[in-house]
Amino acid sequence: MAGEVVEIIGLAEFRRDLKRAGLGTKDATAAMKKAGAPVLAKAAAYAPRGKGTLAGSGKISAVGTKGRVIFKPVYAPGAEFGVHGRWVGFEKWGSTPRFGYRALAETSDQVFQIVTAELNDVLTVYGWFHD
Predict the structure, then answer these.
(1) Four-residue CA torsion sign, 121, 123, 127, 130
(2) Alpha helices in the chain (DSSP H)
(3) What is the tally of structural domains in the chain?
(4) Does a structural domain hold residue 40?
(5) What percentage of the chain carries pLDDT values higher than 70?
(6) SS3 category, 60
(7) Which residues contact 101 (CB under 8 A, 6 or more apart)?
(8) pLDDT tens column, 103-112
(9) Lesser CB count within 10 Å: N end or C end of the chain?
(10) Residue 75: which domain range?
(11) 16 found inside a domain
(12) What is the reported pLDDT for 23?
């Protein structure tokens, strides 16, 4: 899922408000990791299964207010998009995008709910989220 990121815009202000609420960037990172779990589970379920290790190689990477789901094999972009450099022949697995972006699209509401639940105090008290 190269380039697909859940990001909080206004990082400096967000960090300031996290500190005021008694929270830190570690709390935001933990929220991003927790929110990535359903994306990773669905993406791993959708990932092609053949001779390689793609489906089992997924992991969640979260730093600060950014979270990503990453699949390690060098052929992962080819599996996701059909072709990537010399990695071709994934057409038999269906239309693109196949697993990562598809999983993110299907779980985006759930990701949003998890992040807002985890950071509810700072999001509501300091005006970052309104009902």
Answers:
(1) negative
(2) 11-20, 25-46, 76-81, 100-118, 120-125
(3) 1
(4) yes
(5) 72
(6) strand
(7) 1, 4, 80
(8) 888 998 999 8
(9) C
(10) 11-125
(11) yes
(12) 65
